[in-house]
Write a structure and sequence with these properties.
By secondary structure, the chain is of the alpha/beta class. The chain has a single domain, classed as 3-Layer(aba) Sandwich (Rossmann fold), CATH 3.40.50.1110. Helices cover 52% and strands 12% of the residues. The chain has 9 helices and 5 strands. α8 links the parallel β4 and β5. α4 crosses α9, α5 packs parallel to α7 and α7 packs parallel to α8.
């Protein structure tokens, strides 16, 4: 990402940060059978939890346009028995996520996708603090569902935050992924960040078209885990 695009990204993110699913002759028996089949199908589906910020929540978009929902369409088209759960929350920080994750872990998980840290970076939160919070979230998932597969999505901050901070922030995700043996996507917004036509007027949240690219980025790393 160029310095010019990074500068625009910083401004847009700063503004956004603070503004902010045969015929049966007996109808009753037919309905009952249908409900049973639907229930069985639901019970067989393994949950994929996408836990993150407004980028995951689909800020500014219509229902069904965020990347977790787009991935659900892909899963359905391939007849794969998974249910994508959108656990995104606008403005979420790593500290907020640490306090919220326990509630979402009440439902069984097969795959956990972690997308947090962007808002920490914009606030200039110490990388060591963000690292500790993300590790605490990962630890909670591991403790509750030791067989769940884990995936981490990386994020970037503009160099305006300082070269050292930007470098430490970027490396944080890579280090966490390696330490916890997580599938790693280096940059969630690859091919979207800094491209005006793929972002909303705030310059940071992807449009519906931009979210399709994000979904593609995530899918390429997620598919081998299914």
């Amino acid at each position: 990402m160029s310095l010019k695009n990074a500068y625009h990204l910083l401004i847009a993110l700063s503004i956004t940060l603070f503004s902010c699913t045969g015929t049966n002759k007996d109808p009753k028996r037919a309905n009952s059978a249908s409900e049973t089949q639907t229930s069985a199908k639901t019970n067989q589906a393994a949950n994929i939890l996408f836990f993150g910020t407004s980028l995951t929540a689909g800020y500014g978009l219509d229902p069904g346009e965020a990347y977790p929902e787009l991935i659900q369409h892909k899963l359905d088209s391939l007849k794969l028995p998974y249910k994508a759960i959108n656990g995104g929350l606008s403005g979420e920080t790593s500290a907020g996520g640490k306090g919220r994750i326990d509630w979402l872990l009440k439902q069984p998980l097969a795959i956990f996708v972690l997308e947090l840290g962007a808002n920490d970076g914009l606030r200039g939160v110490a990388v060591s603090e963000t690292t500790a919070n993300l590790q605490a979230i990962i630890d909670q998932v591991k403790a509750k569902y030791p067989n769940a597969k884990l995936m981490l999505t990386g994020m970037e901050v503009p160099p305006n935050m300082g070269d050292q901070y930007a470098s430490d922030f970027r490396n944080m995700f890579k280090t966490l992924a390696a330490k916890n043996k997580m599938t790693f996507l280096p940059f969630l917004l690859e091919g979207v960040a800094g491209i005006p036509k793929l972002n909303q007027n705030d310059g940071i949240h992807p449009t519906a078209v931009g979210q399709r690219i994000v979904a593609k980025n995530v899918w390429e790393k997620l598919y081998p885990l299914l």
